[in-house]
Amino acid sequence: MPYKYHILSQLHKYAGRDKVRLHMPGHKGRGEFARLFPQAKYDITELSFSDDLQDPSGAIAAAQSDIASIVGAKRAYITTDGSSSGVMACVYAASRIGKKLIVPRNSHKSVFNACRILGVEPVIVQGEEREGVLLPPDPDLISRLVAADVHIVGMIVTSPDYYGNIAPLDDYAAVLKPLGRYLFCDGAHGAHLFMEPDVYCGAHADMLVDGAHKTLPTLTQGAYVCVNDEDLFEYAEQALAMFRTTSPSYPIMASVEYGVKFIVNHPEIYYAASANVQKFLGEHSDFVFYPSDDWTKLAVDFKPLNISPALAQQKLEKRGIYAEMNDGRYLLFYLSPMTSALQLSALGNALMSVVSSKKLRDTYREIGGVIPPAPRTYSYLYALGAPSEWVPVKDSIGAMCAENAGVTPPCIPVVVAGEIITPRAAKLLQSGKSTFGLRDGKIKVVRR
What we know:
Layout: H1 6-15, H2 31-36, H3 59-71, E1 75-79, H4 82-95, E2 100-104, H5 109-118, E3 121-125, E4 129-130, E5 133-134, H6 139-148, E6 152-158, H7 169-176, E7 182-187, E8 207-210, H8 212-215, E9 223-227, H9 233-243, H10 250-265, H11 267-283, E10 297-301, H12 309-318, E11 325-326, E12 330-334, H13 341-355, H14 380-385, E13 388-392, E14 405-407, E15 412-415, H15 423-431, E16 435-436, E17 438-439, E18 442-446
Parallel strand pairs: 2-3, 2-6, 6-7, 7-8
Antiparallel strand pairs: 1-9, 4-5, 8-9, 10-12, 11-12, 13-18, 14-15, 14-16, 17-18
Helix pairs in contact: 1-10, 3-10, 4-5, 4-9, 6-7, 10-11, 11-13
């Protein structure tokens, strides 16, 4: 029996009625706005029939209950604020138990921001490098850290990451849970993996966030938080009451429910898309792809091709092919169950065109790569509050960073507060097209 779309059904009922909209939002579903934004008729607020995300008892409650059942969680909470609000909720829950949390070096900036806001000291760990990409840290390192410090609440880990590396979640859980520590997971890039329980973070995490909009047929900003440990229910609900908007988008909420249930209602689409990707890889073995654990992450390595990925990206976009990210070495193509065989064929043809272009030969320049662990004198929280000044990035080498700074995407800090800025870090920040933590070419450092 297919799952029903509870929230979407309510929106369809309302859109089909003759009504006078004397409620928010201000566009009222009328005039030029309604012509330019046809979905305006579904854009409503909390009404007598539409339920309330802050205290759900109707369609939203039914949707959340179904999502929890589908992904195997004890409770699920929809959020229209993206995965970042879910990350904030996870760190908030940790902060109610203690003030230290293991944070891998390649975590999203939202993790570090949450630690800053909530006064949690991140115990930063760095895994090994594989083909220019950081891997999740070794479970033995996590074991040593928690055994040596009773103040560590647990760990928050990204799985999968932007490149599709899946963390050894079962090993982390085996280390943490016997010691009464918690495993939190930023699963923003792997909402689809509930279809593959062996690698899904929800099978091991005590609390997690899934970014439905990243890999499911869901509108941007649609996500959900799952909780599996009953001791965290109250903290999760406190956090979401504080960090989620009180004016959630009903179309986004409906699309979160839709995204999860569509895949369950049509599993053949999911498995066909996965098979098409495997076929694509087999047909294009002349290319080097990053060895991803997740079929939705297709990263073409341009280093062995000796071609600039930035120039290749420009050529692809002229052919209507848009990648998710260019990190200076890889072009990352973000796939989903909705990616068709026709689209993959178009990508393959476009990549062959790039390789055959004489103008692009010998254009590769090494600018990215993993930043080695930098020395640290101050703690993260201390460095954020220390006397500071803004200096040009080129003059910051050897200084201690006082504000996280990085390149976006993937929104991972190149340098974290409390770390010494190295020549390599400065070069990467200067070469980044879009950055965070910089101001007019300057970076904030601890005053010498």
